């Protein structure tokens, strides 16, 4: 069976939901022929009376199954229908609840108000199969029953890199990854808790943001500005650097529909690299069961503070969490789930074509 995976521009999503699944599934199942492309090759034309062009042909490149990542345009919906008309099965891959992007997020206008989230739901409704990263996303995109959760995982080569807890730096780094301007509500759930932990260990600790700090110092009431570490676009390079730069990783999330649907990836990454993790009690972080739960500012102060002050505790917990990742959260553990989803899509398309014949 040949599978063609079409990915978006977002490197993180491409890596975790397309490129690495393709590699792992291909290694696990030699009956699969897998290709990965950015987008699909199409032919478009302007039909009489139309103001915009319409997709009139899609090249499936001989694939039995085409995977479309985060389709959210009218053109992608047209592609889906044309592929199915050719007898090609279509899998829609979704790893965000687009309809719940919060107001104030820079993607809200494009995804919610423009109607892109509605088109994504329509693509999922018409797909032969849908893959998602969390049970909450299954409720949004897989109510028809042709869907499955394939959780995020990491390749063994990343988890087996030298872990953070083997280092013994003079100054410990508490870190967070991302752009503060797009996650202000998340960072602020810690309120003054992080500053309290840093104040107790002044001179022996620092806070760093692997990405863009923006107004983080003001939002977190920090005495000292965070160290800003430029983001690394190469995902393998980013994951390697995570364990080289952080000793304690924080994963605060405001509990809302968008965040409740998000994957456990940030805490998984911290734990895989031997970084002690403190995180919010979101549904997925709870399901993962890794990292220290912080519900209130005083929890952040206590748990981050203890990790900074008690080296044995920090190393013991970080090592245990890394072992849990090795035991159950590698891409080799999810490879068969991906392959099974693609096969179910092909079977569903064959059945639909027989009924329609």
Automatic annotation (TrEMBL):
The keyword Transferase applies. Keywords: Transferase. Residues 197-338 form the Spore protein YkvP/CgeB glycosyl transferase-like domain. InterPro entries: YkvP/CgeB_Glyco_trans-like. The keyword Magnesium does not apply. It holds the Pfam family Glyco_trans_1_2. GO terms for molecular function: transferase activity. This is Glycosyl transferase 4-like domain-containing protein.
């Amino acid at each position: 069976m040949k599978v063609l995976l079409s990915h978006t521009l977002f490197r993180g999503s491409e890596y975790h939901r397309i490129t690495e699944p393709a590699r792992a599934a291909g290694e696990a199942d030699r009956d699969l022929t897998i290709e990965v492309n950015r987008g699909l090759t199409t032919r478009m034309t302007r039909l009489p009376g139309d103001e915009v062009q319409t997709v009139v042909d899609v090249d499936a490149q001989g694939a039995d199954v085409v995977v479309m990542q985060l389709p959210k345009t009218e053109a992608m919906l047209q592609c889906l229908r044309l592929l199915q008309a050719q007898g090609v099965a279509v899998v829609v891959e979704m790893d965000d609840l687009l309809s719940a992007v919060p107001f104030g997020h820079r993607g809200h206008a494009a995804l919610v108000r423009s109607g892109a989230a509605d088109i994504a739901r329509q693509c999922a409704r018409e797909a032969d199969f849908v893959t998602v990263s969390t049970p909450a996303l299954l409720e949004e995109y897989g109510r028809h029953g042709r869907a499955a959760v394939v959780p995020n995982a990491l390749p063994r080569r990343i988890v087996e890199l030298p872990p953070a807890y083997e280092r013994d730096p003079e100054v410990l780094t508490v870190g967070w990854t991302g752009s503060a301007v797009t996650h202000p509500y998340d960072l602020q759930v810690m309120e003054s808790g992080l500053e309290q932990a840093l104040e107790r260990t002044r001179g022996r600790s620092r806070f760093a943001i692997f990405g863009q700090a923006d107004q983080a110092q003001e939002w977190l009431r920090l005495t000292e500005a965070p160290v800003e570490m430029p983001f690394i676009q190469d995902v393998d390079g980013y994951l390697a650097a995570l364990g080289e730069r952080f000793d304690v990783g924080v994963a605060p999330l405001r509990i809302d529909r968008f965040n409740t649907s998000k994957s456990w990836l940030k805490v998984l990454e911290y734990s895989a690299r031997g970084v002690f993790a403190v995180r919010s009690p979101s549904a997925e972080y709870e399901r993962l069961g890794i990292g220290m739960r912080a519900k209130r500012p005083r929890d952040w102060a206590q748990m981050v503070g203890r990790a900074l002050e008690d080296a044995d505790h920090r190393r013991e917990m970080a090592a245990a969490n890394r072992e849990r990742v090795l035991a159950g959260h590698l891409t080799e553990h999810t490879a068969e789930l991906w392959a099974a989803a693609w096969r179910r899509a092909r079977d569903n398309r064959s059945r639909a074509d027989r009924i329609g014949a």
